[in-house]
Amino acid sequence: MSFFDWTPDLDLGIKVIDEQHRRIADYINDLHQAIEENNKQEILTVADRVVNYTYEHFAYEETLLKKANYLLVEPHIQVHRRFKESAEKMKADIINSSDLGPARKMRSDLMLWLTNHIKKEDADYTESVGHILRKQSFLGGVFNFFSKK
Predict the structure, then answer these.
(1) What's the confidence (pLDDT) of residue 137?
(2) Mean pLDDT within 105-123
(3) Core vs surface per residue 105-119: b (16+ CB within 10 A) or e
(4) What dihedral do alpha carbons 49, 51, 57, 63 form, nearest 10°?
(5) Mean pLDDT throughout 124-149?
(6) Do 1 and 32 touch, CB atoms closer than 8 A?
(7) Which of 45, 49, 122, 125 is 20 to 30 A from residue 19's alpha carbon, by CA?
């Protein structure tokens, strides 16, 4: 399996969220590299990093969704909770395995999940979040939320 190749169709047009998504993709690539090097300790370290960073991203995203009064915020939070449960199981599988199978599965599952999550669940909130961020445009100079669109 190759590195996670970021493509422009994964950009939502909300700069801060796009940057966070790209960072998750970078961590997936770090996981790929650790697997290629057969470095179990680095695999565990990177698995923790990608999961912890994703949780931070979720917290930030959920705050934006609530501020925007996004109608589907609760279902979106439930998607995040299911991911957290799955991620914890993936990490445990890596810890308890003597081979690279669970790490490879985590890498492929994360790639698929991130792509699908961005294109489906996250794409649905861009208008709501974009609207609230535009209303608070005085913050634009400080945070520079929008990258395009």
Answers:
(1) 56
(2) 95
(3) ebbebbbebbbebbe
(4) -130
(5) 63
(6) yes
(7) 45
Distance (Å, rounded) from C-alpha 140 to C-alpha 95? 43
CB environment 30-48: b (16+ within 10 A), e (fewer): bbbebbeeeebeebeebbe
Instruction: Give the pair of three-digit tokens for residue 116.
Output: 């699908």
Structure tokens given for 70: 């996004």
- What amino acid occupies position 141? G
3-state SS class at 40: helix
Report helix, strand or coil for 50. helix
**Of 45, 135, 80, 83, the residue nearest 146 (C-alpha):** 135
Residue 1 makes CB contacts below 8 A (sequence gap 6+) with 32, 104, 107, 108, 111
143 versus 125: the higher-pLDDT residue is 125
Domains of the chain, earliest start first: 10-143 (1.20.120.50)
